[in-house]
Each structure stands twice: as structure tokens, then as C-alpha cells.
Amino acid sequence: MKKARYLVPHLYTADPAVHVFNGKLYIYPSHDVESGIPENDNGDHFDMRDYHIFSMEDIEGEVTDHGVGLAVKDIPWAGRQLWDCDAAYKNGKYYIYFPLKDQTDIFRIGVATSDKPEGPFIPEEAPMKGSYSIDPCVFCDDDGTHYMYFGGLWGGQLQRYRDNKALECAAFPADDEPALPSRVVKLRDDLMEFGEEPRALVILDENGEVIKAGDNDRRFFEASWMHKYQGKYYFSYSTGDTHKLCYAVGDNPYGPFTYQGVILTPVVGWTTHHCIVEFKGKWYLFHHDCVPSSGKTWLRSLKVVELEYNADGSIRTIDGGGE
Asked: Cβ neighbours of residue 146 under 8 Å, at least 6 residues apart?
């Protein structure tokens, strides 16, 4: 797997969240469709309506499509746009966490449950209390505590909030002010609601200073992911309009995290989402690009490549194949 492999040739899929359940890899991606909506900075052209769930018994083996595990039409509070999701497992139950615009076009995060990792998943009647923005990632620490990382700028609406409160008008910090942070929150024991108020996830530069809003090559934009390697917490994310996947390392799930470098250089397409997972003794980067659709940024294709670490724990940068 030193060379990236496309996984789902029969559908456009993106935003992968991957977990090992019952000895298999289960993939929870977005399902891209051609909606005909013009491109804009709000991301209206990403008009995803359901999640197909996939599994693999071997990283180079066959990919099984288990069909639709959750659809917009089945969600009681739904408006539109079912974006990047994640999954979790606890006490015999599987959970999907999904961002979806409600009927007032505000993104909330919902939860749906199933007795099987492939679903079908049954959504709750309402979104999680206090949730907002997009791109939930759920990380289970070694002690069994689950944390959610979330947030995304521009179409993800994170700029509409400060201190978990909605603003009258969206506001971006000045270039020399601290960048808008992603959020981290411990989940309740039953994984159905937040167990506390979400906190800001702070990313520091090499001098211990908070990354500034104008530092577009390093500041958080969207696509949170958390994994643990050799006792350290690795927070990885997309820089959005500068099209990189970057990472920062910390000593606990809340941070602060210190910026370390680039995981993936730009891909073909506007940007990419990702996840990092260990399977059968090796680490892998799941992500997407738009090569199969000839660069249509709203029609993306899921792929995987091996991820390698240096002896000091740093991640070797992977060439995304874009500009």
C-alpha cells in the first residue's frame, strides 16, 4: 500500500471515517451525487443525501458495499446536506454521528444507533443538545472515554459561534488574531449527548504561540481527526483553502497541541478529508480526491495509502498528487 488505492469505483464517496470492528475495517464515508447546484463558498454543491457503509477484511482485498445505512429522508429534524460523519462502538451498540442542516439551514450534529456496524442506523428525534457546525470525529481513549472533535469554517458555519453561543452575524478574526479553533467535548457515558460544554482546541506554533488566523498554511479549517501513537495524541485536520492535511501533537485529548507538519500535500480537487487508522500492525491514511471525476470537486473518490512514522514519531509527508 505504498501506492494509493481507490476503493469504491461504483460510487462517488468522500470524507472517510474508518474503524476496526469485529476484526474488519468499516468505512463510513459521504456519498457524493451530481445535484446540479452551482459551486459556492457555502458548499451548497455538496448536496449529499445518504451514507453507504463499506467493509474490508484486508487492506488490499475486496470492498463490500452494505448499502445505505442512514438517509436524510429518515431523519425527523432534517433539512439538507448530510456531510462528513463518524462512528463509535460501546456496550454492543454502534453509533453514527452526522452533521446535517436543520429546517432553518443551520448545521447541527445528530446521532443514530444500530446493533450492527453496517446498520441500518436509527436516528434520534432531535440533534444533540448544544451541537453546531460540522465534521464530527469521535475518539475513544484507552480508558474508554469518548471525545468528539468538530467544526468547520465557511460552509461549516463555525465562524457563526463564539464560546458555544451563536453570534448575530458571522465574524472572522483579523489575520494577526488567534485562528478560530475546532472544538473538543467529552461525550456523556451513553454517547448520546455532550457530557460537558465544548472547549476550544488550541494549536500552537513552534514558539508556543497560538496559530494566527492569517496563517492559512497551518491554521485549522475543517476535517478533524484524532488518533494516538506511542502515547501521544495526534490531532489532524484540513487547512481548507490551502488544501493541506496537517497535524499537531499533544499530551492529552484536550490539548494544547503543537503543530508538527504536513501529512498530505494538495490533491486534485478543492481539498480533502481523511482519517488515520491502524490495522493488522500498519497505519493507513484514508482520504479522497477528484481524479476519477476529472477534477469535479463535488464528485470525490475514496482512496487509501500506507502512513509511515519516523523514529521520532513524526509523520512522513505523502504526495497528494495535486498542484
From this structure: 88, 90, 138, 139, 140, 186, 187, 191
Catalytic choice (15, 84, 118, 289): 15
Q: Which of 32, 118, 135, 222 is catalytic?
A: 222
Distances (CA, A) of 151 to 133, 233, 303, 313: 5, 18, 23, 26
Specify whether 319 is catalytic. Answer: no
Per-position DSSP letters for 134-169, written without gaps between them: S--EEEE-TTS-EEEEE--SGGG-GGGEETTEE-SS
Does residue 222 carry a catalytic annotation? yes
Q: Which residues contact 231 (CB under 8 A, 6 or more apart)?
A: none
The CA distance from 306 to 5, in Å, is 10
CATH class, 5-316 region:
mainly beta
Query: Domain map of the chain by residue range?
Result: 5-316
pLDDT digits (tens, 9 = 90+) for 153-210: 999 999 999 999 999 999 999 999 999 999 999 999 999 999 999 999 999 999 999 9
- pLDDT computed for residue 250 by the predictor: 98
Amino acid at site 267? V
Q: Tell me, what DSSP letter sits at residue 270?
A: S
Q: How far apart (Å, rounded) are the C-alpha atoms in residues 323 and 315?
A: 21
